[in-house]
Amino acid sequence: MGESSGRRGGRRAARNPLSRAEVIDAALRYVDLHGLDALTMRALATEMGVYPTALYWHTGTKAQLVAAVSARVLEDIVLPADHGMAWDEWLTEVARLCRQAMHRHPNLAPILGSQLVVSTTAVPFAERVVGVLERAGFSGRDLVEVYNAVVGFVLGWVTLELSSVPADVEEGWQKEYAAQLRTVNPNTFPALTRNLSLLENNAFLVRWDSGRDRPMDGSFETALELLLLGLHAKLTAQ
Amino acid sequence: MGESSGRRGGRRAARNPLSRAEVIDAALRYVDLHGLDALTMRALATEMGVYPTALYWHTGTKAQLVAAVSARVLEDIVLPADHGMAWDEWLTEVARLCRQAMHRHPNLAPILGSQLVVSTTAVPFAERVVGVLERAGFSGRDLVEVYNAVVGFVLGWVTLELSSVPADVEEGWQKEYAAQLRTVNPNTFPALTRNLSLLENNAFLVRWDSGRDRPMDGSFETALELLLLGLHAKLTAQ
DNA sequence: ACCTGAACACCGTTCAAGT
DNA sequence: ACCTGAACACCGTTCAAGT
User: Fold this and answer.
1) Spatial distance between the Cα atoms of B187 and B183, rounded to a whole number of angstroms
2) Comparing C-alpha atoms, which of A88, A86, A38, A85 is closest to residue A62?
3) A91: which chain B residues are within 8 Å (Cβ-Cβ)?
4) Interval A19-28 mean pLDDT
5) In whole numbers, what is the pLDDT of chain A averaged over residues?
6) Three-state secondary structure call for residue A164
7) Which residues make Cβ contacts (< 8 Å) with residue B16, sequence separation at least 6?
8) pLDDT at A168 (0 to 100)
9) What distance in Å separates the CA atoms of residue B125 and residue A206, rounded to the nearest whole number?
10) Cβ proximity of A150 and A227 under 8 Å
11) Beta bridge partners of A115
């Protein structure tokens, strides 16, 4: 693999032009490696051995490129077949697959969670989930709201799990925060004090490591369990 | 109110110096008015009638300022008293209060949802929720995981609800997307086709307006109902 | 303590020009 | 069709200097 053949190292053969898919893939790799803030039209261009403005031809504006990248992440969720599988099993499995896909690209979670999906790539996903919920016994307005409850829970929860501190802030405040928690007044914070060893760095608002480094597997499974218990209860109630 | 007295309009009296709280409040107002992307150290500075570098003295780096602003939003959630109130009622009420607080500052939702809370202002919140869940009957590892399930659901779900399209992308693709949905193949997308009138622009992944403009009240209430049904079921199961 | 003012090393994006 | 190359109007941040 001589220098002359490849496209890496900022070098490019004069022939074989870029493609839209190539740019999107390169951007995803770049974000995975260097973080979302580091993604720059100029940086990505040099990485690809091309002038910054060449990217505009293929993927448009930076915002459009980022939207395309986030759509790409959803694309490689392959849903399991749902015939011969209980609806609740299937939903559980799909929820875990979504979480896995997001965990594969934790630096993109802020976009996944806060940006409206602009692509039709998610339509097959919606179809399958709606179909399975229909099969479970939901219909009409209930169906829509249950769908939103489920999808919003999964994507939203994992977004929060993967949230992290901006590179700038995280100097030494983690230790500081941990110390502050341990010296909290037991009279004004009795519940926290009782459960501190279990809570600290394991619970939302009382942790300092991202779910990217400290996955909250147990809590996700519990949340999923609660959701499915709720779905069953709602079905038997009506 | 003459021009000489105020601090608005890019003018400032030479006396009465800035304060940290003043900068944070101004930044929050600015984000509410002009969006998160528009928040710029330079823009905020001119808004406050001051040089950009003056802000650094009070709130540090831009990332630190944004973190402080997001902490401020959580701060003005005032939790109701929980004595003489069933635990499930209280949780429902608190969930709604959180959602309301986020809806008051929709432009900040991306930060709330994707950035680890770096301040101790959320500690009292955690104390109260943990305490109420203890009272409900949870303890030990279960308590922590149920806490995470609940908090992650509320904050995460609303983050997703408030997600929106970046200013750049939203040219005319909404109509285009709506049209594409309506011409979808009924054979490959039967469930979607059956429920299209209820789903379109109302369901995650199949909508083009943000929850900021089109609040998903019903779906949030359903999600909350499912969560509480789940909690009750889990309690009676053990 | 609090702010000015200049300066540095970046950005995204437009547009004409090349091939 | 696809890319170069220059140019424009911005950024965040550091740092010395003022008061």
Assistant:
1) 12
2) A38
3) none
4) 98
5) 92
6) strand
7) none
8) 81
9) 10
10) yes
11) B164
Mean pLDDT of A52-66: 98
CA distance B65 to B74: 15
- The closest of A3, A133, A58, A210 to B194, measured between CA atoms, is A133
Cβ–Cβ < 8 Å for A33, A105: no
pLDDT score of A178 more than 90 = no
At residue A12, the pLDDT reads 56
User: Which of B112, B129, B148 should be substituted to probe chain A, the one whose Cβ sees the most A Cβ atoms within 10 Å?
Assistant: B148
Please choose, from the candidates B236, B111, B211, B94, the residue with its C-alpha nearest in 3D space to the C-alpha of residue B161. B211
Rounded-to-integer distance, Cα A146 and Cα A154, Å = 12
Which regions of chain B are under pLDDT 70? 1-15, 170-171
B90 vs A contacts (CB less than 8 Å): none
Residues A186-217: pLDDT tens digits?
999 999 999 999 999 999 999 999 999 999 99
Q: Please answer yes or no on whether A148 and B180 come within 8 Å at the CB atom.
A: no
By the 8 A CB rule, do A163 and A107 touch?
A: no
Closest to A94 measured CA to CA, from A121, A68, A132: A132
Token digits of residue B177: 């997307």
Helix B217-237 crosses helix A140-161 at what angle (to 10 degrees)?
80
pLDDT, residue A74, reads 95
Shortest distance, CA A46 to any CA of chain B (angstroms): 24
Number of alpha helices (DSSP H) and beta strands (DSSP E) in chain B: 12, 0
Hunting for tokens 């209980």 — which residue is that?
Answer: A86
Residues β-bridged to residue B115: A164
Residue A97 clears pLDDT 50, i.e. is over it: yes
Cα–Cα distance, B101 to A100 (Å, whole number): 30
Considering only CA atoms, which of A60, A38, A62, A97 is closest in space to residue A220? A97
Beta bridge partners of A164: B115
Per-residue tokens: B134: 């203890």
Partner-chain contact B123 A66, CB within 8 Å: no
- Residue A9 scores a pLDDT above 50: no
pLDDT at B8: 41
In this prediction, residue A105 has a pLDDT band, given cuts at 50, 70 and 90, of very high
Q: Kindly state the average pLDDT of the residues A160-164.
A: 97
What does the block give as tokens for A1? 């693999």
